[in-house]
Amino acid sequence: MTLFENVPLISNDAVVFGLLMIVLGLVFYTSSLENKFFKRFYVVIPPLLLCYFVPGLFNSAGIISGSESQLYDISASYLLPACLVLFTLSLNLSELWKLRKKAGVMFLATSLSVMLGGPFAVWVVSLFAPEVVGGEGADEVWRGLSTLAGSWIGGGANQAALYRIFEPSPELFSATITVDVFVAYGWMAILLYGAGKKEQLNRFFRADDRDVQELVGRMEAYSAETTRVANTKDYMIMLSLAFGVTGIAHLFGVSIAEWVNEHAPELSAFNLTSSFFWIILIATILGICLSFTKARNLEGAGASKLGTVFLYILIAAIGTQMNILSIFDNLGLIVVGLIWMLFHVIILVIVGRLIRAPFFFVAVSSMSNIGGVASSSVTAAAFHPSLVSVGVILSVCAYAIGTYAGYVCGILMQMVSP
């Protein structure tokens, strides 16, 4: 549902892309001004959040159509792997290993809370509104919600795999997508806002943020040592590595997915027939491999800054998929999603306080599951661009377990359904 049905006002992708770039330019320009109004405005609404929601408003108002546009598919296919390569060029695995305890525990808590939160939400709603979580055959609500579990313990590829496994009706699947968009990205909006209040939240979690700050400090120090004014050669090398690796990832990712699908189709249950999974995995691995070479010095020429440009374009493209008004069509399932997410948040808060985890670990561990690579990268970037690689690695782990954990969640929801 949009404010204006039928044909969107702008259907030419070149014009839509120009509009999105104008939005990004205006947001970055106004957020850098010393004007009191804009300073106060961006204290309440972070620039990162605005880059996401303004395109969503355009889509909801019928000015553009995210479903008809190819911009998101192109951005996800090309810019996402490319920016992952640029971000992981400066990756220091030995430094990340030092953070394994708190990051690992929070990641495990996130996955388990989503896997158990689904059955809990279905059970709670069945007590006062069994018709919301009932249904028969392909319309059994648990089938649709199982695809949501895959999305929230991995990403879209896991969701697609579980759609093929449980085969919910198209109408039910569309309803769960609405829940996914509004509940998941609503939580992401809260986390992005929380990134600007991390000091207060760290005090709430009784957390010592020195590990994170020391990691940022070391990576910034390395950047300062290698920083130089980039020239045309630097940009060409960075782009050649980013898109060259992206091309390799597509070449082998698609081939591997096709081979697995042909020779071991049963592995679709583990998402190993998804080409997107292999593309992201290969791009990330090759980016990490490059961090052990002289290519790591490209960070001094602005590799992560170029990656951030790609990332913000991706954010705007993701926003075009949002339909702000469609929430009113599925209010019952929204309640299920909100209870599910609340269960997840409560578990994170309890575990976070017990282990005194910095809010950064709470936020990025959550979005590495709930939102996948793109969302966790965006969330990590809100804390500091040099921390994006943490979100990438956790997201790849989530992709690896998402289909299996989502499958278990679906079976549990089936058991408690009325």
Which consecutive residue ranges, at least 5 long each, have pLDDT under 50?
none
Number of domains: 1
Order of helices and strands: HHHHHHHHHHHHHHHHHH
The coarse overall form would be globular
Proportion of helical residues? over 70%
Task: Note the main sheet.
Answer: none
What is the strand content? under 5%
- Mean pLDDT comes to 83
Number of helices: 18
Total beta-strand segments: 0
Distance between the termini: 30 Å
**Backbone CA Rg:** 21 Å
| Class by SSE composition | mainly alpha
Structure explained in plain terms:
The protein is mainly α and 418 residues long. It has one domain (77-416). The chain is 74% helix and 0% strand. The chain is built from 18 helices and no strands. It has helices spanning 13-31, 36-44, 47-60, 71-88, 93-97, 100-128, 141-152, 156-166, 170-195, 198-204, 210-226, 232-263, 275-290, 303-319, 331-355, 359-370, 372-383, 388-416. The chain starts with 12 loop residues before the first helix and ends with a helix. The relative contact order is 0.20. The mean pLDDT is 83.
